[in-house]
Structure formats: C-alpha cells, structure tokens
Amino acid sequence: MTTEIILAGFGGQGILFTGKILAYCGLMAGKELSWLPSYGPEMRGGTANCSVCISDEPIGSPLVANPDILIAMNGPSYNKFIDAVKPNGLVLVDSSIVEEECKREDITYISIPATDIAAENGMNGSANMILMGRMLAESGLFNIDTVQKAMEKCIPPKRANLIDVNMKAVKIGSESK
User: Which CATH number is 2-175 given?
Assistant: First the structure.
C-alpha cells in the first residue's frame, strides 16, 4: 500500500518540518519513503509545500501529482492542490486561515481552526502539528508512539523542550472533532 501526501502553506508554518516528521514515522515503521520539500526563494511568508510518499514497496518517484491526503494551511495552497486530490482522498485545512469552501463531494474534507486552537493553548506555531494529529487519527497511518519516536529523532537535543509541545499539539489534533 502507498500513501501520497502533500502538505502546503506559507513558509514559516512548519510545512517542511511536518513532512519530515511523517517521513521519520515511515522510517520508524520500516516503510519505504520519500520526502521532497519545495519552497520559493522568499522563504518565510512565501509558499512552501512538501510531498511525502510512504509505501510498503519501493517508490518509483518522489513527485506527488495526485495525493491521497492534502493538508492545506493557506488559501493559495488549497486552491493549487484541491483538484489534484484523488477521489476518496482526505483533505484537512486550517480554517483559521483558509476561507475557501470545498465544492468536492468525492473526498473527506475536514476544516479545523488549527491556528486558533494552537493560540488558545499557548502553542503559537503548532497549527501544523494539530492538523497532522487529526490527519493521523483519520487515516490511521501511524500511532502516537511512532510519532513520539520520530519527534525524538528529528528535534535536536538542544531543542528537546519542543518535543512535549509538539506532542501535545498532535494529541489535541487527534482528539479534535
């Protein structure tokens, strides 16, 4: 089985970090994977997206043209990728920022005010982890223990204090409805 994911938003929203965590989850679970970041020259405030492929068999190309899952953290990213999502795919958007309405009826569409939830919980900058937590709860792709191990691998020891905050955000996202 292969799962193709696109994460997209503005630079600085943690798009590439979220993709990296998902890639490490794949490693921890013994899967084949690819992680392909893409960002504009303007970095913070510019567009950023990341393609992640997780599979039980070798991956032929890291490019994701038709994702199974889309996480969109801003309107331009939503507009760019929504039509590419496979039928029966999963789309999660940060409704604190994305104002567009979904017209597709052949996908599962979940709208979460992730930026607002992060701010309410004193975790500014954790909207990405809230969305990832909900995506993992919906998809069953990885369990919380795998995410914890991936966080411990991705976050350097000098920033280890961020592991607990990120895991709290993932749990809040996974429990959101």
Answer: 3.40.920.10
What is the rounded distance in angstroms from the CA atom of residue 84 to the CA atom of residue 32? 23
- pLDDT tens digit sequence for 20-75: 999 999 999 999 999 999 876 655 667 799 999 999 999 988 889 999 999 999 99
Q: Which residues contact 39 (CB under 8 A, 6 or more apart)?
A: 11, 16, 46, 47, 48, 49
CA distance 7 to 99: 17
pTM of the model: 0.93
The residues spanned by each domain of the chain are 2-175
Strand partners, 70: 6, 91
Cα angle value 26/54/97 (rounded, 5°): 95
